[in-house]
Give the backbone structure.
Amino acid sequence: MRKRWKKNFRVLRELMRIRFQGLMMFQLGFFGPFFVDGSLFVVQLMVFRIVYSNVERIGSWGEGEMILFIGTFSLINAVGMVVYFFGIRQLPEKIKKGELDLYLTKPVSPLLRLTFEKINPGSIPLVFMSLCIIGYGVSKMGITPGAGKVLAYLGWVIMMTLLHYDMMVLIRCVCFYLVTNARMEQLEDAALELCMKLPGIAFYGIWRVIFCFFLPYGIMATLPVQSMSGEMGIRLALQGAAVTAVFTILTVLVWKGGVRHYNSASS
Amino acid sequence: MKIKPWSGYRKYAEAAYLNLKAQLAWRADVIFNMLFTISKILFAFLLWGIIFQQKEVVAGFTFHGMLSYYIISSFLSQLEMSGGISEEIFWRIRNGTFTNYVVLPINTEGYFIAMEAGVVLFYLAFDFLAAVIWIFLFRIRFVFTGEPLILICAVVMVLLGLLFMVELNYYLGILTLKYQEISTFLMIKNNLISLVTGTIVPLALFPEGIVRLMRYLPFYYVTYLPSMLLTGRCRQEALSGILILAGWCAFLQVVITVTWNSYRRKYDGVGI
């Protein structure tokens, strides 16, 4: 086991070195993802500043909770952009062109390589920007969180980042079985766009079922905020953990099934 | 010799018709584009639903007035599909295939305007159908103006707004001739446009000083003001809005002509 970890670590180190070399070839686009996603979340902050200048609360959330929500979504997105977004995004193309062969024949997990081969250090400033938004949100909430709350919040952010990763992989694994996953990606974009603007507390009825259980983007930034604000009960925590566990298991199963189903260029 | 005054426009009409027909090849795209308009309405329905539980009126909007605004602004923003023009020009210049447009016996900008017209005409009925479905699905008591003159002003403003956006995206596209890498800027522009055109939240919610400033900018008149006019508000701004937007269209046309004339020699047709 230790040997395997050591080998994986060496592979990751090498992938990062190659990636840095590649990025230096196109220096102009290095910070592109930071500026694009940064502007998106700045727009979000402005939108809710404007909304809160007209209303005091949205449901049970004041402006502080909403800023923390935006910062948390931005952080999950930023970690994804730095680590796995650009790698996993190319999975459908690799399957269609049969380029996954090159991954399957290497002595390292193909998913591990795909996940880390396109790390994007240009998005690291987005992580710092998100931390600033989070800090501002917490101060606006008027609370001084203890170590327990901070740890719980961090734990939820890690779990929700894993859920975000699961969703990305799952949606792209459709290509193992169908010619295209374009519609699924369209659905992903629409759901993400909606849920990064709208916290999970706004969903009810059928919409809650859809966006908290089937396309669980609705809980991704909401649960960490609820853990920080003290709104989270044991039931909510168990639901969140269960959704993450189910989607992680599903991702592993679908990935393994997909790889077995993969027929090189003809798939 | 018999002079045919409209003969010069026939090729543009043909380009529009070809692009209209080309949309038929992507039937699934049409259906899914139509279905995904629900995300904008759902956002408004859930966000404003929870807000209006505590307040009856926000910035002069009732709940149903607000949703009517979102239905119309979502319909108009769906029609505005010119973002693809700047991306098309950017990639064509980057890979050297912009020549395909340059060699056409037709004005390049005119071709893109005709192309946009064809696409808009095709999507018009589908987007309208989607809007009607969402009105019934979300049980919205739809608010719509009853004044024919305001309706005409709104339609003229929408057309000018579409023209302005085509011009803007064409202008940004041809900047690739000089700056080569503008894709990041184009994506940032898309994020900002949704805010300043009032498709995320109505501009009426912004502080008064900012709204006053935005009245001098064209984006105020692209989606926001037509939506407000069609929901029976801001009548007094209808005529001035048309004049300001027409002025911006003319100004941008001059900028495009100057930019095209000075940068077109930089295009060598071999890509970057």
About this structure: Chain B touches chain A at residues 28, 32, 36, 39, 42-43, 46-47, 49-51, 54-55, 58-59, 181, 183-184, 187-188, 191-192, 194-195, 200-201, 205-207 (CB under 8 Å). Chain B has one domain: 9-266.
